[in-house]
Amino acid sequence: MLEKVAWMNMLYDFYGQLLTDRQKDLMELYYCHNLSLSEIAGEFKVTRQAVYDTLKRSEQTLSRYESKLGLAAKYKTERNRLACAAAILEECETAQSSDRLQQARKIIEEVLKM
Amino acid sequence: MLEKVAWMNMLYDFYGQLLTDRQKDLMELYYCHNLSLSEIAGEFKVTRQAVYDTLKRSEQTLSRYESKLGLAAKYKTERNRLACAAAILEECETAQSSDRLQQARKIIEEVLKM
Q1: How many other CB atoms are there within 10 angstroms of residue B18's CB atom?
Q2: Is the dihedral of CA B86, B87, B89, B90 positive or negative?
Q3: Which of A99, B44, B101, B103 sits most deeply, having the most CB atoms within 10 A of its CB?
Q4: Cα-atom radius of gyration of chain B, to the nearest Å?
């Protein structure tokens, strides 16, 4: 569940601007501010079901963009590789090992080719 | 003009999958394979104007996605920063200067925060 929330947050960061204002408002309250469906329903004076339906549709829209473009998945992979490179460099700064340094550079070059 | 071509190629890489099949075909022939409007018109048995209109609409669609999401511009900035980091590392591998190493790591960490 937590993983789904993190992934939806990421998709929202990437494609959120393609949603309607209403969809954006509900997504932010639910995914960023962690309000419950009932709390959001109260806020907007609509039923819990209406909030649920809007969120579901928004999630489907974001997922559809991602399945076509795959930009969030690519970004996630890149971030992981860069974090590896940064960790290796941190280690090199104390040890000054040129093998590890080359390894870090290769990772960066690999990301540059993505 | 060359810069526009490179930028359109980039927008096409990012958002091309949101175009129709027809739009994708024309964009690829024009921007990736460098065919002229008349050559494409001949290929598809339509007027040169029809090709022009389809390309214009496709460009507008891609630009609209970019103006909402800004992902290509962000990617370009990141790439430039990473290329800087890779160059610094290459230099470090011979000189083993720990100041420059730290500089490279800072750039990577900066990109990770983007």
Answers
A1: 18
A2: positive
A3: B101
A4: 20
Instruction: Check CB contact of A89 with chain B, cutoff 8 Å.
Output: yes
Structure tokens that stand for A25 in this block: 């408002």
Residues A66/A14, Cβ–Cβ less than 8 Å:
yes
Amino acid (one-letter) located at A62: L
pTM: 0.83
Taking CA–CA distances from A107, the nearest residue in chain B reads B86
Nearest to B98 by CA among A6, A47, A97: A97
- The whole-angstrom distance between B13's CA and the closest CA on chain A is 9
Hey, are the CB atoms on A82 and B111 less than 8 Å from each other?
yes
Distance, in Å, from the CA atom of A48 to the CA atom of A81, rounded to the nearest integer, reads: 41
Phi, psi of A94, rounded to the nearest 5 degrees: -95, -40
What are the tens digits of pLDDT across the range B22-81? 999 999 999 989 999 999 999 999 999 999 999 999 999 999 999 999 999 988 888 888
Do residues B60 and B93 touch, judged by C-beta distance below 8 A?
no
Q: Is the ipTM of this complex over 0.85?
A: no
> What's the gap in Å between the CA of A67 and the closest CA on chain B?
10
| Contact present, A35 and A48 (Cβ < 8 Å) | no
Provide mean pLDDT across the span A15-41: 95
CB B65, CB B51: distance < 8 Å? no
Token representation of residue B112 = 């990770």
Q: Determine the residue among B105, B109, B114 to mutate to test chain A binding: the one whose Cβ has the most chain A Cβ atoms within 10 Å.
A: B105
